[in-house]
Design brief:
With 185 residues, the protein is an alpha+beta fold. The protein has one domain (5-184): tt1808, chain A (Alpha-Beta Complex). The strands form 3 sheets. It has a 6-stranded mixed β-sheet with strand order 1-3-5-6-7-8. Strands 9-10-11 form a 3-stranded antiparallel β-sheet. A two-stranded parallel ribbon has the order 2-4. The protein is 23% helix and 27% strand. The chain is globular.
Length: 185
């Protein structure tokens, strides 16, 4: 870790999830935690995203905090989302890690690169979705992830998540009605 955002942003997303999903116990989001899996060089070598989300697992395993996330101890549930905040030193975010997450079966791989995107010749915010075993770059902000029921995008210089899908092209009144209906569901 070579900048404050690599710690702050994933923790901000964790805080937002704790607020949005306060009444749910079937999800787990972690920051800088090893994910042990069997699709890499060795099951003893984890991949450590800046943040990741798994659904369909206990929020607190047996009422306790996890020391790591071991896929085969989580009913083989892999994270549905992995987040990488790009640092000063390139770390294979756009090739090696992308390939590893694809092999693992992570549905969404998000790369946030607000500082070095021009150096890396990428956009500051990229969402990749796994389609037929390979990642495809998605377009749009706030990007809606229906399998998760959340959207992710940028607000000023930080990433944000939302539990409401905003509909472009609606009037304020139509948006208000849609938001009200969504909050009742």
């Amino acid at each position: 870790m070579d900048n404050e955002d690599q710690n702050f942003i994933p923790n901000l997303l964790l805080f937002l999830l704790q607020y949005i999903w306060a009444n749910r116990n079937d999800w787990f989001f972690s920051v800088d935690m090893g994910v042990y899996h069997t699709t890499g060089v060795s099951p003893l070598v984890p991949i450590v995203p800046d943040g990741f989300l798994s659904l369909g697992v206990e929020r607190r395993k047996e009422g306790k905090s996890r020391k790591s996330y071991v896929v085969w101890e989580e009913n083989n549930i892999v994270p549905i989302l992995a987040l990488k905040i790009v640092s000063l030193t390139p770390g294979g975010e756009y090739d090696k890690k992308l390939e590893t997450y694809a092999k693992l079966g992570v549905l969404y791989y998000i790369i946030y690169n607000p500082e070095y995107w021009q150096r890396d010749r990428h956009q500051p915010f990229e969402v990749y979705r796994l389609v037929d075993g390979s990642y495809q770059l998605q377009i749009g902000e706030l990007f809606w992830m229906p399998e998760i029921g959340l959207g992710i995008g940028r607000s000023n210089t930080y990433l944000v998540i939302s539990s409401v899908r905003f509909c472009i092209g609606m009037t304020n009144k139509e948006s208000a009605i849609k938001l009200q209906k969504n909050s009742l569901n």
